[in-house]
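Box 3.1 A note on notation
Throughout this textbook, protein chains are presented in two layers. The first layer is the amino acid sequence; the second is a token string describing backbone geometry. Keep the layers aligned when reading.
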Amino acid sequence: MTKQSHKIILKSLKISKNIRINFYNEDFLKFQFNKKYDLIIGNPPFGKLINKKRLEDYIKNKIINKNINQFIPFLKKSLKIGKFISLVLPKSFLSAPDYNEELKNIENLLIYKIIDFGEKGFKGVKIETIAIIIENKRTINNKINIFSYIDNSYNILNKNYIIDKKFPYWLIYRNNF
């Protein structure tokens, strides 16, 4: 979508006068934001960068230091500039060892909700996805809403139950076994 099409869509919505929407047609990872934002909403790309020129540019400009999954620098930058962050991420984020550092960085933040879309997040796409909603505010424990789009279930769980040091990754579904 172009900036113009976004503006046309927004004209059809009733948006409160105290809300300001900024449009940037820029590379999010390279753009230098000069302020913090109340809300960051995104669906960053998944997978490693296949464009060698862009990868070299990101490494040269210290945006990333190696070819990691592209959503990671989006998450990191969103956490630097946003108060509330809502991102669609691959479900493997919760359990793959590659993401332990990033999980550690957000485990002490206020996590409101994790929505598990499974493979139903995007028609025709066979990647399991989640949405995670975070407030960039430190807290030891809170209740996290877990919604499964797959089986239409809803649970409210203590964060320390999901992020349990006995396990090497986050468990959004657990039972006594």
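The chain is about 25% helix and 25% strand. The chain has a mean pLDDT of 89.
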